[in-house]
Amino acid sequence: MAFNPALLSSIFIVLLVFSTVTNALSLNYYDKSCPNVEQIVSNAVKKGKANDGTVPAALLRMHFHDCFIRGCDASVLLDSTRGNKAEKDGPPNISLHAFYVIDNAKKQVEASCPGVVSCADILALAARDAVVQSGGPNWAVPKGRKDGRTSRASESVQLPGPTFNISQLQQSFFQRGLSLNDLVALSGKLISTFLLLSKKKRKRVTSDASAGGHTLGFAHCSSFQNRIYNFNATRDVDPTLRPYFAASLRNTCPIKNRPRNAGATMDSSSTIFDNTYFKLILQGKSLFSSDQALVSIPRTKGLVTKFASSNQAFSDAFVMSMIKMSNLNGGQEIRKDCRVVN
């Protein structure tokens, strides 16, 4: 999808505001020092996608999880050490994969422009390319981020969870300077549709050989069990769920004799960037409490309805919100290896 001309002026306003605040990020940051960085990253994402169709979703989610903890500083890429358990090994991040795509991109970038491009910028570019290569909108990514030196698994619990209500979601986003518009726009592909959970528990290895065992848009029963059993004191099932949909979920996730790693797919079009997620919410066929929370107040319900009726409106809002989110930065260095501090 090409740039939407009607969006350009708004995007540049957003970029101007953030460039003033950060005094670092710019669209031409690597024009002289590493002019081919964007092509290198794009090729790495394309190769990863050819190897594993879930790679684009994984990279987009990885960027989101990175930015929500200490800003977009590539702290989610750091490996745990003997004295520290890193973010990637925190409970919400166990299912992250495709780190090897960033490793490959970084290796090629270092060969072309040693010591110049941060891992945080590579991840931001890869997330954009993931959207584009899934049929979504394109946008210019501001660059100039620095990589962080701190990564703690304990901080990963700050990520918005599938059982969050609207107040909890608002607080999580507002603390990061993101609005209700951003909350709804980003939820469409970052919180739910692009959530990846492993069907089989496999130990993550350095080469990410287990990536093929992940399924795009798959959620374990534990993520939505609160909506189909003992919902509240008077109802066993969340009344906002379509009865036949709730029945199918209960069949998939029985209380007794439940198959190990049982769960449900979330979006039949989850390998494609589109607005199906919002349509499912309005149809009473969303899995998580955090999904249904988006229609619990008039402002966000109006946005869900708007995005469900117009894929273009969703894409435009998503671009604006991604630019805002990806400008959150707090790093200190340019790592030579994305998995370890210098």
UniProtKB/TrEMBL annotation:
<feature type="disulfide bond">
    <location>
        <begin position="67"/>
        <end position="72"/>
    </location>
</feature>
<dbReference type="GO" id="GO:0140825">
    <property type="term" value="F:lactoperoxidase activity"/>
</dbReference>
<feature type="active site" description="Proton acceptor">
    <location>
        <position position="65"/>
    </location>
</feature>
<keyword id="KW-0349">Heme</keyword>
<protein>
    <recommendedName>
        <fullName>Peroxidase</fullName>
        <ecNumber>1.11.1.7</ecNumber>
    </recommendedName>
</protein>
<feature type="binding site">
    <location>
        <position position="160"/>
    </location>
    <ligand>
        <name>substrate</name>
    </ligand>
</feature>
<keyword id="KW-0376">Hydrogen peroxide</keyword>
<feature type="signal peptide">
    <location>
        <begin position="1"/>
        <end position="24"/>
    </location>
</feature>
<dbReference type="GO" id="GO:0042744">
    <property type="term" value="P:hydrogen peroxide catabolic process"/>
</dbReference>
<keyword id="KW-0575">Peroxidase</keyword>
<keyword id="KW-0479">Metal-binding</keyword>
<keyword id="KW-0106">Calcium</keyword>
<feature type="binding site" description="axial binding residue">
    <location>
        <position position="214"/>
    </location>
    <ligand>
        <name>heme b</name>
    </ligand>
</feature>
<comment type="similarity">
    <text>Belongs to the peroxidase family. Classical plant (class III) peroxidase subfamily.</text>
</comment>
<keyword id="KW-0560">Oxidoreductase</keyword>
<feature type="binding site">
    <location>
        <position position="71"/>
    </location>
    <ligand>
        <name>Ca(2+) 1</name>
    </ligand>
</feature>
<keyword id="KW-0732">Signal</keyword>
<feature type="binding site">
    <location>
        <position position="87"/>
    </location>
    <ligand>
        <name>Ca(2+) 1</name>
    </ligand>
</feature>
<feature type="binding site">
    <location>
        <position position="267"/>
    </location>
    <ligand>
        <name>Ca(2+) 2</name>
    </ligand>
</feature>
<feature type="binding site">
    <location>
        <position position="215"/>
    </location>
    <ligand>
        <name>Ca(2+) 2</name>
    </ligand>
</feature>
<feature type="binding site">
    <location>
        <position position="66"/>
    </location>
    <ligand>
        <name>Ca(2+) 1</name>
    </ligand>
</feature>
<keyword id="KW-0408">Iron</keyword>
<dbReference type="InterPro" id="IPR033905">
    <property type="entry name" value="Secretory_peroxidase"/>
</dbReference>
<feature type="domain" description="Plant heme peroxidase family profile">
    <location>
        <begin position="24"/>
        <end position="342"/>
    </location>
</feature>
<dbReference type="InterPro" id="IPR002016">
    <property type="entry name" value="Haem_peroxidase"/>
</dbReference>
<feature type="site" description="Transition state stabilizer">
    <location>
        <position position="61"/>
    </location>
</feature>
<dbReference type="Pfam" id="PF00141">
    <property type="entry name" value="peroxidase"/>
</dbReference>
<feature type="region of interest" description="Disordered">
    <location>
        <begin position="138"/>
        <end position="157"/>
    </location>
</feature>
<keyword id="KW-0325">Glycoprotein</keyword>
<dbReference type="GO" id="GO:0046872">
    <property type="term" value="F:metal ion binding"/>
</dbReference>
<keyword id="KW-0964">Secreted</keyword>
<keyword id="KW-1015">Disulfide bond</keyword>
<dbReference type="GO" id="GO:0006979">
    <property type="term" value="P:response to oxidative stress"/>
</dbReference>
<dbReference type="InterPro" id="IPR000823">
    <property type="entry name" value="Peroxidase_pln"/>
</dbReference>
<feature type="disulfide bond">
    <location>
        <begin position="119"/>
        <end position="338"/>
    </location>
</feature>
<feature type="binding site">
    <location>
        <position position="274"/>
    </location>
    <ligand>
        <name>Ca(2+) 2</name>
    </ligand>
</feature>
<feature type="disulfide bond">
    <location>
        <begin position="221"/>
        <end position="253"/>
    </location>
</feature>
<feature type="binding site">
    <location>
        <position position="75"/>
    </location>
    <ligand>
        <name>Ca(2+) 1</name>
    </ligand>
</feature>
<feature type="disulfide bond">
    <location>
        <begin position="34"/>
        <end position="113"/>
    </location>
</feature>
<dbReference type="InterPro" id="IPR010255">
    <property type="entry name" value="Haem_peroxidase_sf"/>
</dbReference>
<dbReference type="GO" id="GO:0005576">
    <property type="term" value="C:extracellular region"/>
</dbReference>
<comment type="function">
    <text>Removal of H(2)O(2), oxidation of toxic reductants, biosynthesis and degradation of lignin, suberization, auxin catabolism, response to environmental stresses such as wounding, pathogen attack and oxidative stress. These functions might be dependent on each isozyme/isoform in each plant tissue.</text>
</comment>
